[in-house]
Amino acid sequence: MKILHIVQGYTPAIGGTERLMQRVSENLVARHGDAVTVFTTTAYNCELFWRTDQPRLPAGMEVINGVTVRRFPVFNSLGPLLRLLAGGAYLLRLPGNDWLRAWQNGPIVPGLGREIARFDADIVAASSFPLLHMHTALRAGQRKGVPVIFYGGIHTADVYGFARPMIYRAIRQVTAYVAYTQFEADYLISRGVPAEKIHVVGVGVDAEPYTQANPQTIRQRYGWPEDAPVIAFVGQQVPHKGVDMLLDAMPAIWAEYPTACLLLAGARTSYSTHIEHWLAELPPRQRAQVAVIHNFPEEEKADIFAACDMLAFPSAHESFGIVILEAWAAGKPVIGVRVGAIASVIDEGKDGILIRHRSVSDLVAALQTLIHNPALAHEMGERGRQKVLRRYTWDLVTDRFREIYQQSLRG
Q1: Domains 2-204+393-410 and 208-391 share a fold
Q2: Among 93, 121, 355, 386, whose CB has the most other CB atoms within 10 angstroms?
Q3: Closest Cα partner for 305 from 288, 333, 336, 326?
Q4: Superfamily classification of domain 208-391
Q5: 291: which strand partners?
Q6: Backbone angles phi, psi at 200, to 5 degrees
Q7: pTM
Q8: d(Cα 313, Cα 315) in Å, to the nearest integer?
Q9: How far, in Å, CA of 12 to CA of 45, rounded?
Q10: Residue 332 contacts residue 211 (beta carbons within 8 Å)
């Protein structure tokens, strides 16, 4: 098959969707011999879509592990104006405010629709909402007369981002929709999307590197003792991921477990300066017990998970949460939020703990439970690892995606 994937960012850009699209694209080439091209932007992270002070990758074309990648420049000069117009229209509930919010989010990519429409592809597949390129991909794919497939990405807790009628009108028009969880599928059905269009697949992880990682590599780098409890947060350093909750929880953890360490690893954003201010105000001893790793290379991820005793991921804005699978692949228990898709990924009490949304007290209690009961933490992590091996390897996920592509072509 000749496949065109469209996504907001691609490696070395960091993020769950970016990682998903990379692995599926590379596996389609390696496992099935498909010709895969990715149209993406020059962004390292989505802040580039509305801010002009963000770093960017060079525009142009390159081949990465057999996948042809074309990066388009982003137009973002109207970011502040669009933010003002969209916010005002949303508060006043003006007609068309969902489209204004979409233009505010971006990415505004001049010429993207034209290039999609004239590209030689059997399938056009795009991810993820609420970003503007999804609608561009749909219109261009319809002009081409080829099947259009959308990947999941609905964050039901994000009302501003996803309470947009235009999103669900677009989904009703595609050939097929890939939902990451049954929760997402049920939500779309409740919004009028025909059930026969929806396929629940999930995301994936390579388990082998996590079983071979060295748990001491990161600990030795920061001088942390072998027996010190290490709490990890892995993800973009933004408030909606819940990293601020973890900062608020640490004083209570240190009061009971003075040797506990905190590892924050993920893409740097404008919010990272808040983390740095928080860190600067800590006493010297506690400051030495916190490590912040910005924009780490993919090959370091397994060592990061190996070094920790648990993953704290109190984000409610997730369509799945790929870092949960990565923690499980390393045999680590996870703490998530009892909201939306996360609650359908974690089996509460078996492979992780669920807490109330934005409840710092719940987060503290969950962290204390896992630190105080290492046998329980180990048991939860092992159950998570077995779940990954049964259902969430990249080979399994890629084969399911390709089957959907083939069904769409036959249809």
Answers
A1: yes
A2: 355
A3: 326
A4: Glycogen Phosphorylase B; (3.40.50.2000)
A5: 263
A6: -95, 120
A7: 0.88
A8: 6
A9: 10
A10: no
Comparing CA positions, the residue from 190, 159, 188, 158 lying closest to residue 316 is 158
Could you report the average pLDDT of every consecutive run of 10 residues in the chain (411 residues)? 98 91 98 98 95 95 98 96 96 95 97 98 97 98 98 90 96 97 96 97 94 95 97 90 95 98 93 94 97 92 98 92 96 95 94 97 98 98 97 96 97 81
The span from the CA of 198 to the CA of 218, in Å, is 41
C-alpha–C-alpha distance, residues 213 and 305, integer Å:
8
Tokens 């046998």, located at residue? 375
Residues 6+ apart with CB under 8 A from 196: none
d(CA 400, CA 6): 19
Residue type for position 299? E
Burial 146-167 (b: 16+ CB within 10 A, else e): bbbbbbbbbbbbbeebbebebb
Radius of gyration of the chain (CA): 21
Contact between 85 and 52 under an 8 Å Cβ cutoff? The reply is no
Q: How far apart are CA 393 and CA 208, in angstroms?
A: 10
Chain position carrying tokens 């329980």: 376
Give the C-alpha separation, 111 to 131, whole Å. 16
335 exposure class (CB count in 10 Å sphere: 0-12, 13-18, 19+)? buried
Domain locations in the chain? 2-204+393-410, 208-391
Residue 212: burial class (beta carbons within 10 Å; 0-12, 13-18, 19+): exposed
Kindly state the DSSP code that residue 73 receives in the 8-state scheme. P
2-204+393-410 folds as Rossmann fold (3.40.50)
User: Residue 128: CA atoms inside 13 Å, Cβ hemisphere, count?
Assistant: 23
Do residues 159 and 152 make contact, with C-beta atoms less than 8 angstroms apart?
no
Cite the DSSP H helix spans in 163-224.
165-173, 182-190, 208-212, 216-222
